[in-house]
Design the sequence.
């Protein structure tokens, strides 16, 4: 079985369209979306509509959970924009997605098996995300009970094989290549390039992983962010880096 693995779309419709077009030519048997579908100043409603129209499996990200709230009160700017641009049915769909799915030998969740807002393959060092060590990943993962673990959340493409043979994959972010976060401490996540990221995982025999970084019209996405008052997103979309003018 070949799985197309996507995550962290964040309402970036042209990036999602480009990724799905590329996946259509890669002979995947199934697509799994690891969550954070719509949050951001881009195209939340159109992105959710496209995801729901395609045959794929989904798990719920921390921002999907936030968008399932009854009101936008207390939400951050990106979540609030998306909440107000989604109808109640779309918000309910996002909030109702499962926390975890098992697909064959793959265990799929957004961030970690404990919650949807804890990095699994990443650690914070010097205010930036770096690859976490295998012992820390194994401790957080616990007895995986699966040969393959698929996660997102950090927007960083990662691959790690643990001592027990478990393979852990983060496909990177389809639609948001860099961000500034304040929890659990202030830090940056930067991919260093504006490309849309995804992975193809082949579990036919041995587990094989292909990471992809593809071009799409990121200038269109950046202009959309600027129109909606988010110069920080526009910079990230054009460069894959966080603006130093924050």
Sequence:
């Amino acid at each position: 079985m070949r799985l197309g693995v996507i995550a962290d779309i964040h309402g970036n419709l042209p990036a999602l369209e480009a990724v799905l077009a590329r996946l259509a030519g890669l002979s995947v048997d199934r697509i799994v979306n690891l969550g954070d579908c719509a949050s951001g100043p881009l195209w939340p409603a159109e992105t959710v509509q496209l995801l729901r129209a395609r045959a794929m499996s989904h798990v719920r990200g921390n921002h999907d959970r936030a968008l399932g709230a009854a009101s936008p009160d207390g939400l951050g700017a990106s979540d609030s924009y998306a909440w107000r641009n989604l109808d109640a049915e779309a918000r309910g769909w996002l909030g109702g997605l499962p926390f975890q799915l098992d697909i064959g030998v793959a265990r799929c969740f957004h961030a970690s098996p404990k919650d949807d807002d804890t990095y699994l393959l990443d650690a914070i060092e010097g205010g930036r995300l770096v690859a976490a060590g295998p012992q820390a990943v194994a401790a957080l993962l616990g007895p995986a009970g699966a040969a393959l673990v698929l996660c997102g959340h950090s927007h960083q493409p990662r691959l790690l094989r643990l001592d027990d043979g478990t393979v852990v994959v983060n496909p990177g972010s389809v639609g948001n290549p860099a961000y500034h976060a304040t929890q659990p401490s202030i830090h940056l996540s930067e991919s260093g390039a504006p490309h849309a990221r995804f992975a193809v995982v082949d579990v036919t025999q041995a587990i094989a992983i292909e990471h992809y970084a593809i071009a799409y019209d990121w200038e269109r996405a950046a202009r959309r962010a600027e129109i909606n008052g988010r110069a920080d997103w526009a910079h990230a979309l054009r460069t894959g880096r966080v603006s130093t003018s924050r």
In short: The longest strand covers residues 196-202. The CA atoms of residues 195 and 214 lie 5 Å apart. The helical segments are 13-24, 44-53, 62-67, 77-85, 88-95, 134-141, 218-227, 231-239.
